Amino acid sequence: MFSIGAASRKTGIKIPTIRYYETEGLASPSERSSGNQRRYSPPDIARLTFIKHARDLGLKLDDIRELLHLSANPDQPCAVANKIAADHLVAVQERIAKLQALETELSRIAHGCTGKTVGECYVIEALSDHALCQQGH
Questions:
Q1: How many domains does the chain divide into?
Q2: Which residue from 35, 38, 80, 123 has the highest number of Cβ atoms inside 10 Å of its Cβ?
């Protein structure tokens, strides 16, 4: 059994976040020691590690909740898990495309500045007039 501090170190999840996951029903409420300290078993640590990895990949708590439910029912088809992953991949790809367009526009603005004073600064001018942007963002 692990204390909440040991669980935090083992999983890389901050203590308040572990408590939050418990209140959200993602992590099982921990057992308590005779001194009322939270105690975590190896399966609890594995569940927290699963949650941490899913959060690191950017999955939403509701999706993680569903994936945890699915993982507790190993005989079910994995179509729902695949759909969650595929939908998240599409969302990530859309964000990447938006970030690449933003990068292109910011690079153009930053490299377009040849002024020596703020009065001649293209960065200030471009930020003041959205029509000077070449791409939507």
A1: 1
A2: 38
68 Cβ partners below 8 Å, 6+ apart?
A: 26, 47, 50, 51
Contact between 137 and 103 (Cβ < 8 Å) = no
pTM over 0.85: no
Range of the domain at 13: 1-59
β-strand partners of 38: 32
Q: Kindly report, residue by residue over 36-91, the tens digit of the pLDDT.
A: 788 899 999 999 999 999 999 999 999 999 999 999 898 989 999 999 999 999 99
Residue 42 belongs to a domain with what CATH number? Answer: 1.10.1660.10
- The vertex-135 CA angle with 134 and 136, nearest 5°, equals 135
Tally Cβ neighbours within 10 Å of residue 7.
23
**Rounded CA separation 114/124 (Å):** 12
